[in-house]
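Attaching the record inline, Q. Sequence:
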Amino acid sequence: MTIEVDTVPTLSQRAVRAEARRSRRNESEAQKRLSSRTATIVAIVIALVWTIPTFGLFVTSFRPGAASATTGWWTVFTDPEFTLGNYSAALTSGGTALTLGESFLNSLAISIPATIIPIALAALAAYAFAWIPFKGRGFLFVAVFALQILPLQMALVPLLSLFSRGLTIGGVNIFPGFALRGVEHSFATVWIAHVMFALPLAIFLLHNFIREIPNELIEAARMDGAGHGQIFFRMILPLAMPAIASFAIFQFLWVWNDLLVATIFAPSSSLPLTQTLNSLSGSWGNKWYLQSAGAFISIIVPLIVFFALQRFFVRGLLAGATKG
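Structure, as predicted:
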């Protein structure tokens, strides 16, 4: 009598755990080598100098508009006067057709898919370039890397024409377009634009990380009968999580703080936070205290994302700093 047990290949599991332990050991060694008292003091001084303008903006966001217009923020130490009215007014007002609160939700709807989609596509492409031999692999990778040289501004007009008119080849409309002026509450054009601009860098960074995974791990998994799907989802993704998290932080911050792409491709009903924040101070800039409050509202989500992924971010920066 035989008993069949469906388990994950044990050899691959041991190899993955060994590689994770080696990564943590290298991270600890790199932290010891890169940390020193002088570097710490210099970093603290730079952080303090960098924080002073931000602190002034933070104080201004709580000061009444009349006080902000007549005195500097540093006078709060001798004549403290605070109000929460700036934040409530900033959330319920805006220079565009949308309020800051509505634009905040639009920014979430734009940033989350525009971060997840390029990471998913880039991870698959990076694995293919790194571990799947196929004809023309080197040429295609160089071509993808070369796309980073193309300035973002050069692609805006062709993309806008493509999204509005569509793409016709041989009399066949293979891409019908989105008819931007007639689309309401549509984020598809902004998603596609951000994904296209993010893919070259994402593929390049993830490829470099995935390529450094020891060949013994991949060979062990193949000897245990694992296919490309099992190798990718059970080995590559867990090991590449620091690099993925690092790029996710950069991509999310870029999309969240973007003004150019959203201004060109987003319909008026789908404008993000940056567009509303840009016009919050009024036509003559006389309500800039509202803009300071809106600025701190806008950084809540990026701070949450950064601190949530900080552990992976540090590991991603230190990965490969030492050889174990």
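The chain has 16 helices and two strands. The chain has two domains: 32-83, 97-318.

More tomorrow.
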